[in-house]
Amino acid sequence: MKKQDFIKAVATKAWLSQDAVSKSLTAMIEVITSQLKSGAEVNVTGFGAFKVSKRAARNGVNPRTGASIKIPAMKSPVFRAGKTLKEAVR
After folding, report:
1. What is the helix, strand, coil percentage profile of the chain, to 5?
2. Engineering a disulfide at 51: which of 23, 41, 67, 86 sits with its beta carbon 3.0 to 4.6 angstroms away?
3. How far apart are CA 36 and CA 75, in angstroms?
4. CATH topology of domain 41-90
């Protein structure tokens, strides 16, 4: 499902305009992104948790040349599904 399809589905289910749902979704994504940037965790009860995971620096191999490269440490966003979501999907 693409973003536009998701917006249409939510608008239909909630009896809202697609524009209102689109603005709400954009605002939600911006808030989650800014919280993750600041290092905070975002918990949505019944849905799941967004947090930042720190990955250590490591050595890798360039598949094209076979040369050894150093992959720097980085942060990456992680989503962990909540119990209610997991049970609904099962």
Report:
1. 45, 30, 25
2. 41
3. 10
4. HU Protein; Chain A (4.10.520)
Distance CA 54, CA 69 (A): 19
Burial of 11 from C-beta contacts in 10 A (0-12 / 13-18 / 19+) = middle
Mean pLDDT of 54-71: 93
- For the chain, give the number of residues: 90
φ/ψ (deg, to 5) at 50: -105, 135
Angle at 64 between CA 61 and CA 66, to 5 degrees: 40
Name the amino acid, one letter, at 40. A
What is the pTM assigned to this prediction? 0.80
| Sheet strands side by side (includes 74-81) | 42-44, 48-55, 74-81
